[in-house]
Design brief:
About 15% of the residues lie in helices and about 40% in strands. With about 375 residues, the chain is mainly β. A hairpin with a 4-residue loop joins β22 and β23. It is globular and about 70 Å long. It starts with 5 loop residues before the first helix and ends in an 8-residue tail after the last strand.
């Protein structure tokens, strides 16, 4: 057979790359075994970025805690990969799908997800309950990639996390927000692959719900918190509207700024508001006089004038008594809320005003949902 012309070989390679870039990530891990040239294409950083850009944003990570069934075993943390559609249609089956479940150590905590990578914080028991030692690592559960641990960070509790991607340096960063014993709030920033943490002094607020990670959007991490010096030591009944703020941390410049709340909020909600992100939008969710659920969307991130109230619906219609937790799906069209009963979750679809109540937490005493995309990303 005559040798292939270089131009033809290049065109063939580009054609193969174009076709493979539309294939879901999981089958691609097997297609790498077809031949050396395909393995080379699929492993190339340019292809990984192209594939990530084209990957459908229709998956979620479900972070669960399962109680011990016997005295001989402890509680278990786990991660479940699911499509949004499968979870909404049958949440119990999605959570019970063992082929999509990954176990975590009891001392692990998921501090964020970005571009198919999960940031896992490991904090073993410390004899001083006010202090913890933390190591963080990146994990791509789809391809099994695990990064080296970050340098140890010893901090006072409580602590809040955020994880995201800095496109300008092509690096993944984790940010911890810390309030020390004197009430001073600082941030520590670590770029994976680096050798040390960077301190950011005079952070303007402390997130009032440390279980809610910073929300990544537009190269920034965002938290809802209380202005210093209130920190985590507060009584919500005494909180005023001017104490409440959204802090946006820019991962490129390692600087922060305030994002103003929607102008239509004129009084403090009865329960703590909730910040969320889905797709390219920032959401603010809160109750109104403990009778209605209200949702705001910042349609253009960073433009405070683009806050738009797009939902107000009664608790009675939803079948909830309090706004305890809310997850956003399908570009703000579907909301999952904690129901009246212990294991009940409520799914509300604003497109047809429908409500579906499902008992899904019987075997899981904790559930968190994170936006996720299946990818081949493996930072070097």
């Amino acid at each position: 057979m005559a040798p292939q012309h270089p131009t033809a070989a290049l065109l063939l390679c580009e054609l193969v790359m174009e076709i493979l870039s539309w294939v879901p990530a999981k089958p691609l891990t097997r297609l790498k075994l077809v031949c050396k040239s395909w393995n080379s294409i699929i492993s190339h950083p340019h292809f990984v970025k192209l594939h990530l850009y084209r990957s459908p944003k229709n998956a979620i990570l479900l972070f669960t805690r399962t109680e011990a069934l016997t005295l001989d075993e402890g509680a278990k943390w786990g991660l479940v990969l699911s499509s949004v559609e499968s979870f909404i249609q049958n949440p119990s089956s999605a959570l019970d799908a063992q082929e999509n479940r990954h176990s975590l150590h009891i001392a692990d905590w998921v501090s964020g997800s970005c571009n198919g990578l999960v940031c896992v914080a490991h904090s073993p028991y410390h004899p001083n309950n006010d202090i913890c030692d933390i190591w963080l690592r990146l994990w791509n559960p789809l391809i099994g990639f695990i990064s080296e641990n970050s340098p140890c960070l010893r901090v006072n509790l409580p602590i809040a996390f955020g994880f995201g991607y800095d496109e300008s340096s092509d690096s993944y960063k984790v940010v911890t927000v810390i309030r020390n014993s004197s009430g001073t709030v600082t941030a520590q920033v670590y770029s994976f692959g680096g050798s040390s943490w960077k301190t950011i002094n005079s952070f303007p607020a402390f997130p009032f719900s440390v279980e809610n990670n910073g929300h990544f959007i537009g190269g920034t991490l965002n938290w809802l918190g209380l202005r210093n010096p209130h920190g985590d030591d507060y009584d919500w009944a005494t909180v005023t509207l001017d104490m409440l703020m959204i802090v946006s941390f820019d991962l490129k410049s390692d600087t922060h700024k305030q994002i103003l709340l929607p102008k239509g909020i004129h009084e403090i909600p009865r329960e703590e508001p909730i910040l969320g992100v889905w797709g390219n939008s920032l959401y603010l969710l809160h109750d109104y006089k403990n009778t209605h659920f209200i949702a705001w969307q910042m349609k253009e991130f960073g433009d405070e004038n683009s806050w738009t109230q797009f939902l107000k619906i009664s608790f009675q219609h939803l079948g909830v008594e309090r706004l305890l937790s809310v997850f956003i799906f399908e570009n703000g069209n579907i909301f999952m809320l904690r129901g009246r009963h212990h294991f009940e979750e409520v799914f509300y679809d604003r497109r047809d005003n429908s409500v579906k109540r499902i008992n899904i937490l019987a075997n899981n005493c904790y559930l968190d949902a994170l936006e996720y995309v299946e990818s081949l990303v493996q930072p070097r």
